[in-house]
Amino acid sequence: MGGFGRGGRRAGAGRKKKAQHLRLIDGGAGRRGDDGVPPDVSTPASPVAVEPPGYMTEAALAIWRDWASDAYDAGTLTATTRHSFAEFCQLVVVCRELLARFQVSIDATGQPRALLHMSEKQEMAVRREYRNLSKEMHLRMKDFRLAPFGKELVPAGAAPAADPLDAFAR
Q: Torsions phi, psi of 10, nearest 5?
């Protein structure tokens, strides 16, 4: 019972998989059938313009025109992912429309209050909807590498960083 590397039927339980680069180094059983060459993550040599789907609204097309080039340059907008990107554009439109309807002012107590005529219960429902939509929007921005997160990516063709241990090598 228990011990290192053992787990029950819980999701995520059990021994964690060894990283790919470590499996290549030690030649474990996971290496069989792998040629040891890392996949090429550079941008395609012949860029093909990805057209937006025909069902998009004019407002969503405006978002597409603003952000599609950035997503394409990041290598995340392809012919396969264009429908997901179209859903993301529509999500941005809905989120912006909700924010425009829900104008906020600061009352005498310093608390934000809606300028719309609605009950507090309705106001909280609108806030909750906006919060959920904005979370989904930011997740999709990360999916298409439109929002900064994690370690900065090295552009293709850039010189590799010098090894900091070279100063100690003879």
A: -75, 150
3-state SS of 101-147 is: HCCEEECCCCCEEECCCCCHHHHHHHHHHHHHHHHHHHHHHHHCCCC
Helices (H), ranges, 6-119: 20-26, 58-73, 82-101
Residue 156: pLDDT over 90: no
Residue position matching structure tokens 């996971």? 30
Where do we find the tokens 């429309």? 97
Task: Please check whether residue 146 is in contact with residue 137, taking contact to mean a CB–CB distance below 8 angstroms.
Answer: no
The pLDDT of residue 123 is: 76
Q: How far apart are CA 168 and CA 170, in angstroms?
A: 7
Q: From 134, 153, 56, 39, select the one nearest 68 (Cα to Cα).
A: 56
